[in-house]
Amino acid sequence: MAGRLCVPTGATKIQVLIPGGTYDRTYWDVGFDPNTHSFTRSQNASGFATLALDRLGTGKSSKPLSALVTASTQASAVHQVIQTLKPRFSKVIVAGHSIGSAMAMIEAGTWHDVDGVLVTGFTHKMNYITVVPVLANMIPAGLDLGYLTTMPDTRYNSFHKPGPLVPGAISFDESTKDVFAATEAVDTILLNTVIIPISRQISVPVMIALGNDFHFCSSGVPLMGSDCSSPAALKADEGQFFPSAPSLNTFILNGYGHSINYAPNAPDYLSAVATWTKSI
Q1: Which are the contacts of 133, defined by CB distance < 8 A and separation ≥ 6?
Q2: pLDDT tens digits, residue range 164-186?
Q3: Residue 36: CB partners within 8 Å, gap ≥ 6?
Q4: Could you write out the three-class secondary structure of 88-115?
Q5: Most distant pair of Cα atoms in the chain: their distance
Q6: Closest by alpha carbon to 161, among 215, 118, 208, 120?
Q7: How far apart are CA 205 and CA 94, in angstroms?
Q8: Model-wide pTM > 0.85
Q9: Angle at 77 between CA 200 and CA 280, to 5 degrees
Q10: Distance (Å, rounded) from C-alpha 200 to C-alpha 145?
Q11: Torsion sign (Cα): 206, 211, 214, 220
């Protein structure tokens, strides 16, 4: 598993960052207007180390047969990475975006070796009404037919809407898109929805950050999305899935969709993450 490690002088806490489906580590270090959009740059400036990973099958990580790549496989690989970091850092926070958040929760709930969990672009109530069409419009890419990516010029509608369409941002997203294995979705759904939530086993502080994300926020249909009308509403809705966590912080970044690192107001959420990390 490959990644980019950035360690500011004196950093004692590290955030291990898992990208979502069809993204690699560049999601955490967006090259378009990085002063606004780079998660790693902002957290490094706040004094935290970051390790932005390429999930197996993406970026510079190894690319096994897609059938061997599941969310649990990814979580196990992240666990091994975390074990190499723990002697160097006093606190390790595992963070994810979208399907990467599912992997972060599987890692934390299974091995109990982290000090905090940051969940972005994900809740336990997936809105299948919007998610299924996005998956259905993906095309094969990569090593074998089980690796998929988005069709050209679909990323704004899939991941950024209802945010403003900023051509430079969408062009960067399109040019750096990667793949995900269809098998990653199977145990993401089994272990990170209302069926068998692994998050019940998480015993460290958790933060959830979402935009106006139609993939995970309610469309008015029962169980098809969480209540994202306010941070308090989201906390009330998601809190049932984290009974062992000592604290649950929630944040809503209004005005943008799924991939909130690309939001023009991303610094508001990045600042909230830094404040929460300081509390760990």
Answers
A1: none
A2: 999 999 999 999 999 999 999 99
A3: 264, 266, 267
A4: CCCEEEEEEECHHHHHHHHHHHHHCCCC
A5: 49
A6: 215
A7: 11
A8: yes
A9: 50
A10: 34
A11: positive
Residues 43/274, Cβ–Cβ less than 8 Å: yes
Distance (Å, whole) CA 126 – CA 135: 13
Mode of pairing for the β-strands spanning 49-53 and 91-97: unpaired
pLDDT tens digits for 190-232? Answer: 888 777 899 999 999 999 999 999 999 986 666 689 999 999 9
Distance between CA atoms of residues 135 and 176, nearest Å: 19
Residue 116 near residue 126, CB atoms below 8 Å? no
Structure token digits, residue 142:
């990569």
Q: Which two tokens stand for residue 147?
A: 């690796």
Dist. CA 158–CA 177, nearest whole Å? 13
Q: In this structure, how many other beta carbons lie within 10 angstroms of the beta carbon of residue 162?
A: 13
Which H helix or E strand runs over 208? strand 206-210
Cβ–Cβ under 8 Å, residues 113 and 92: yes
Helices 71-85 + 184-191 axis angle, to 10: 80
Question: Which tokens in the block code for residue 211?
Answer: 């935009």
> Is the CB of residue 36 less than 8 Å from the CB of residue 45?
no
Count CA within 13 A, CB hemisphere, residue 225.
22
Helix (H) or strand (E) holding 6: strand 3-6
